UniProtKB/TrEMBL annotation, chain A:
Name listed for the protein in its UniProt record: Aspartyl/glutamyl-tRNA(Asn/Gln) amidotransferase subunit B
Stretch list, region Disordered: 277-297
Gene3D superfamilies named among the record's database cross-references: 1.10.10.410
Domain Asn/Gln amidotransferase: 354-501
Main function: Allows the formation of correctly charged Asn-tRNA(Asn) or Gln-tRNA(Gln) through the transamidation of misacylated Asp-tRNA(Asn) or Glu-tRNA(Gln) in organisms which lack either or both of asparaginyl-tRNA or glutaminyl-tRNA synthetases. The reaction takes place in the presence of glutamine and ATP through an activated phospho-Asp-tRNA(Asn) or phospho-Glu-tRNA(Gln).
Organism expressing this protein natively: Nesterenkonia cremea
InterPro entries in the record: Asn/Gln-tRNA_amidoTrfase_suB/E (IPR017959), Asn/Gln-tRNA_Trfase_suB/E_cat (IPR006075), Asn/Gln_amidotransferase (IPR018027), Asn/Gln_tRNA_amidoTrase-B-like (IPR003789), GatB (IPR004413), GatB_Yqey_C_2 (IPR023168), Gln-tRNA_amidoTrfase_suB_CS (IPR017958), Gln_synth/guanido_kin_cat_dom (IPR014746)
TrEMBL record, chain B:
GO MF annotations in UniProt: ATP binding; glutaminyl-tRNA synthase (glutamine-hydrolyzing) activity
Record-given protein name: Glutamyl-tRNA(Gln) amidotransferase subunit A
Family membership: Belongs to the amidase family. GatA subfamily.
PANTHER family in alphabetical order: GLUTAMYL-TRNA(GLN) AMIDOTRANSFERASE SUBUNIT A (PTHR11895:SF151), TRANSAMIDASE (PTHR11895)
Classification via InterPro entries: Amidase, Amidase_CS, Amidase_dom, AS_sf, GatA
Record flagged with keyword Kinase: no
Protein's job: Allows the formation of correctly charged Gln-tRNA(Gln) through the transamidation of misacylated Glu-tRNA(Gln) in organisms which lack glutaminyl-tRNA synthetase. The reaction takes place in the presence of glutamine and ATP through an activated gamma-phospho-Glu-tRNA(Gln).
GO biological process, one term: translation
The keyword Protein biosynthesis is assigned to this record: yes
Any one of the GO CC terms: glutamyl-tRNA(Gln) amidotransferase complex
Length: 505, 518
């Protein structure tokens, strides 16, 4: 054993793929957005003071007993159905036993040999539209652990001066989704990895069972990678990279692990079965703790809970109420809205499908809805460090703004200002335009006077126009705008100039 | 000033009689509670004291008592609404958590720990306004059959202070037998209510699994544990059972059923036409002849009163003890994992070497747990280990199913089953301390009911002499199908009446204890 090479220079990705076929596997933990925890009535909330969202049950105090959160079970069934899984008629919880201070009972209540959902699949859409099917082994319910903060230089429990534990997260409901080994991914493995996690995130978001914010750990991914020499069908030893918590990181971690494994295997070494830590800054992984299949968690059925029994009626009702699958919905929206590919991708990336869809439903054209959400609303939100949706702009507001423009009562520039005033709480666009007197100057007399003034002040421009250079009118618009404080309609100004000069437009 | 002689009579009433006198205004709850506190003061402390209590909460008990008295003397709707047992004091096994009083589970591990919440049964007792006299002694974490495995000293049997009071609930049983409380709560995982009841001449019920909420009972073996009543009479036990039973949303294994009228069942006292099944496997070898003689007399009395005595076979009982000593330690090893010194209770820091969390947990558990607890944790950890699970825990669960089937078959020919509660009368302190297997055999007759989740009761069956010639109480056990707890009260009530006919009840025959007051 001592002679075995476990470390070597990673191969280039291309070279790795020439020699090996990657096999992937994912364990994605989804934190549910239930009001209370998995087995207790303590609040399930993020960001509060340490150890405030706790009660005797989730602190594992002597004598306490768990009670299953029915909403969490329903979420698990819905997720299972969305992942095309079979739902167990009856399933039990089990105790996964290990001593660790973030786990107050020194066991995690999880599911072992009886997951609530099993044997499913997820069709994942890749960047070029190709569909790749990922087989789902199981989705099971469990509880989250508390959060440890290690004081000292290392930031790890080893060598810490002391450690603090916050049990607010202890007992928060989780669903763990486990894939079957993913073979045949080839060179697209990293892309499939990202697309898979992204698809799972879209589904839980669509089901509204999780806040689905990866940066908060609502969706956490453990990525398993192993390599087989080209042509072989026997799986190699796998590594498990823990807590890869962004789409990009998933892609990079899989890429790096493929390169690292290939490097070790190519130099005659062997892969150590272990957990690995993702290092965001160097985009590499580092060795964690050795993990063998013989880790003994002494699982046994949780005697404090009765089996969860699902009836066919219940499952069918939940199935009927499932939202449209995210991938299908995207296809449908892209087609009905008629956006260019890039436009649509940008909307998806900005996470504004819901908002645009609602705005279109309320009567705006897809182009108008996209213009406002992707344009001024996003800009204002960005400046305020908010999500566009959090800005509080109702679809009706956008429609109102747009009809003001279409009626020629305000121009685009004014409309953008009106939006900002609206966001700042000044009322409806109509009211803002009235109150601030922003309406386009449509009084022909006033506008005519302003145009006349501009023509007098710019005789050279007038000459050019007379000479047939109609584009030169643009030079008169600026002074007119200045005179009318921006409330003139550019088209109208052009009409008046031509009229005064007796030129047919 | 209360007369001491009056006090002696007061504490010798049954709980039902105390309740009646309180309702009639003949006595006050403060008098009654004080009488018990005086009794505790007199017999519980000192070198030869019973040590039934780990903690006595006189102030709290008297405050509750005064509250009941005030409500009663004010009269009106609030007095009308008082629970029938309001004002009758009670003792609580120190495995059940209470606010305002420490809960130790008989272990150093929880020395000085104060629970921030009340067990559901304690809430019910507080709502019904029964003054809580204190917390009673037990084998550490309820592991034992003699109350010798307590970090807070042994409890003595009031019938003979050199004898064990049974276990793990020896404290509750001894307190009730010695008139230190008219009622007490116990927990029964393999016989911890019934066996102490048998050897102290008191009545104890293990209810149907799920009849009483386990929320707040520090778990030993979750699938076997059940809280139940300890009293001097069947009726008292039934009344207390009625008070503590009922569905609890905090306990997923608690039954949704309405609580039956157990008190009424206990007063029925008729066995006319009742089919009573004698379990062939729970007699004979290992049972003392005196115990078997009292058992036979009980059968004869029941038969004479019109019961139909039938024999039933429960062949898989042979494996019950083995299965129990796999399932119980397996669950206990898991339930006791939380005691690690991180969050509450004792924390021990190793004197030498690096200060790591593993070493602190290790040192805490090494110092905080007693020998019997460690034995069971090791046994259970082993039984659940990969590669052994199927052979041990898995097989034990199969035996459990077989035992349930044996009971199902037996209850087709019998309405209730009967056996001696314990094969032996109270043995001398220290006798079995070094022989765990001999200790475990005490529970051979009580364990099947826990494995099957069915109700069982132990009622006094008279006195019997052991090999040394000492006359000590014998317990008779009745078992009924799950959710038929009323049947055990009916049968036990009937036997009690038959055996008491023309003589004082056994509990009243207990020898006088020497006052331990300095």
């Amino acid at each position: 054993m001592t002679d075995t090479i476990a470390e070597a220079e990673p191969l280039s990705y291309e070279e790795a793929l020439e020699r090996f076929d990657p096999v992937l596997g994912f364990e994605v933990h989804v934190e549910l957005n239930t009001v209370t925890k998995m087995f207790s009535s303590a609040p399930n909330a993020f960001g509060d003071d340490p150890n405030t969202n706790v009660n005797p049950v989730c602190l594992g105090l002597p004598g306490t007993l768990p009670v299953v959160n029915g909403t969490a079970v329903e979420s698990a069934i819905r997720l299972g159905l969305a992942l095309n899984c079979r739902i167990a008629e009856s399933c039990r919880f089990a105790r996964k036993q290990y001593f660790y201070p973030d786990t107050p009972k020194n066991w995690q209540t999880s599911q072992y040999d009886e997951p609530i959902a099993y044997d499913g699949y997820l069709d994942v859409e890749l960047d070029d539209g190709e569909i790749f099917r990922v087989e789902i082994e199981r989705a099971h319910m469990e509880e989250d652990a508390g959060k440890l903060t290690h004081a000292g230089t290392s930031g790890r429990i080893q060598g810490a001066d002391y450690s603090l534990v916050d049990y607010n997260r202890s007992g928060v409901p989780l669903i763990e989704i486990v894939t079957k080994p993913i073979v045949g991914a080839g060179e697209r493995a990293p892309e499939i990895a990202r697309a898979y996690v992204s698809a799972v995130r879209d589904i839980v978001k669509g089901l509204d069972i999780s806040d689905a914010r990866m940066e908060r750990g609502n969706v956490r991914c453990d990525a398993n990678v192993s390599l087989m020499p080209k042509g072989s069908t026997e799986f190699g030893t796998r590594s498990e990279t823990k807590n890869v918590n962004s789409m990009r990181a998933v892609e990079h971690a899989v890429t790096y692990e493929i390169r690292r494994h290939a490097g070790v295997l190519s130099s005659g070494g062997s892969i150590v079965q272990e957990t690995r830590h993702w290092q965001e800054t160097s985009r590499t992984t580092t060795s964690g703790r050795p993990k063998s299949d013989a880790d003994d968690y002494r699982y046994f059925p949780e005697p404090d809970l009765v089996p969860v029994v699902t009836t066919q009626d219940w499952i069918e009702r939940l199935r009927a109420e499932l939202p449209e699958p995210p991938a299908e919905r995207r296809r449908r929206l892209r087609e009905t809205w008629g956006y260019a590919d890039k436009e649509f991708r940008d909307v998806v990336a900005a996470d504004l499908l819901d908002e645009i869809e609602e705005t279109v439903e309320k009567g705006a054209s897809p182009a108008v809805a996209r213009k406002w959400w992707m344009g001024e609303i996003s800009r204002l939100a960005n400046a305020r460090d908010l999500d566009p949706a959090a800005l509080g702009v109702a679809p009706a507001t956008i429609i109102e703004l747009n009809s003001l423009i279409e009626a020629g009562r305000i121009n685009d520039k004014i409309a953008r200002q009106v939006l900002e005033f609206h966001v700042d709480g000044e009322g409806s666009p109509e009211a803002i335009v009235e109150a601030r007197g922003l309406e386009v100057v449509s009084d022909d007399g006033a506008l005519s006077a302003a145009v006349e003034k501009a023509m007098e002040e710019n005789p050279d421009v007038v000459e050019k126009v007379k000479g047939g250079k109609l584009k030169a009118i643009g030079a008169l618009i600026g002074p007119v705008m200045k005179e009318t404080k921006g409330q003139a309609d550019a088209g109208k100004v052009r009409e008046i100039v031509l009229e005064k000069l007796g030129i047919e437009g | 000033m209360i007369d001491v002689a009056d006090n002696a009579e007061l504490i010798r009433l049954t709980a039902a009689e105390m309740a009646a006198k309180l309702r009639a205004g003949e006595i006050t709850s403060v008098e009654l509670t004080q009488a018990h506190l005086d009794r505790i003061e007199a017999v519980d402390g000192g070198e030869k004291g019973l040590n039934a209590y780990i903690h006595v909460s006189g102030e709290e008990a008297l405050a509750t008592a005064a509250e009941v008295d005030a409500i009663r003397s004010a009269g009106g709707a609030e007095a009308e609404a008082l629970h029938p047992l309001a004002g009758v004091p009670i003792a609580v096994k120190d495995l059940i958590v209470t606010t305002g009083q420490p809960t130790t589970a008989g272990s150093k591990m929880l020395e000085g720990w104060m629970s921030p919440y009340d067990a559901t049964v304690v809430e019910k007792i507080r709502t019904a306004k029964l003054p809580i006299l204190g917390k009673t002694n037990l084998d550490e974490f309820a592991m034992g059959s003699s109350t010798e495995h307590s970090a807070y000293g042994v409890t003595r049997n009031p019938w003979n202070i050199e004898r064990i009071p049974g276990g793990s609930g020896g404290g509750s049983a001894a307190a009730v037998a010695a008139f230190e409380a008219p009622l007490a709560l116990g927990t029964d995982t393999g016989g911890s209510i019934r066996q102490p009841g048998a050897v102290t001449g008191t009545v104890g019920t293990k209810p149907t699994y799920g009849s009483v909420s386990r929320y707040g009972a520090i778990a030993m073996a979750s699938s076997l544990d059940q809280i139940g009543p300890v009293a001097r009479t069947t009726e008292d036990a039934a009344l207390l059972h009625e008070l503590i039973a009922g569905h609890d949303p905090k306990d997923s294994t608690s039954l949704p059923d309405e609580v039956p009228a157990f008190g009424e069942a206990s007063r029925n006292q008729s066995v006319e036409g009742l089919r009573i099944g004698v379990i062939r496997q729970l007699q004979g070898e290992g049972y003392q002849s005196g115990v078997l003689a009292r058992f036979q007399e009980s059968l004869d009395a029941l038969k004479a009163a019109g019961a139909e005595i039938v024999e039933v076979d429960c062949t898989s009982f042979e494996y019950a003890l083995g299965a129990y000593y796999l399932i119980m330690p397996s669950e206990a090893s898991s339930n006791l994992a939380r005691f690690d010194g991180v969050r509450y209770g004792t924390r021990v820091t190793p004197e030498e070497g690096p200060l790591t969390i593993e070493r602190v947990m290790g040192a805490t558990r090494a110092a905080g747990f007693g020998e019997e607890v460690k034995r069971r944790i090791i046994l259970g950890t082993y039984a659940l280990s990969a590669g052994y699970y199927d052979a041990y825990y898995g097989s034990a669960q199969k035996v459990r199913t077989l035992i349930q089937r044996d009971f199902d078959a037996a209850f087709e020919t019998a309405d209730v089953l009967i056996s001696p509660t314990s094969p032996v009368v109270a043995f001398p302190l220290g006798e079995k301390l070094d022989d765990p297997l001999a200790m475990y055999l005490n529970d051979v007759a009580t364990i099947p009911a826990n494995l099957a989740g069915i109700p069982g009761i132990s009622v006094p069956g008279g006195l019997a002499a052991d090999e040394s010639g000492a006359e000590l109480p014998v317990g008779i056990q009745f078992l009924a199908p799950a959710r038929e707890d009323a049947r055990v009260y009916q049968a036990a009530g009937a036997l009690e009446k038959l055996l008491n006919d023309g003589s004082q009840p056994l509990w009243a025959q207990i020898p006088e204890l020497e006052s331990q007051e300095a």
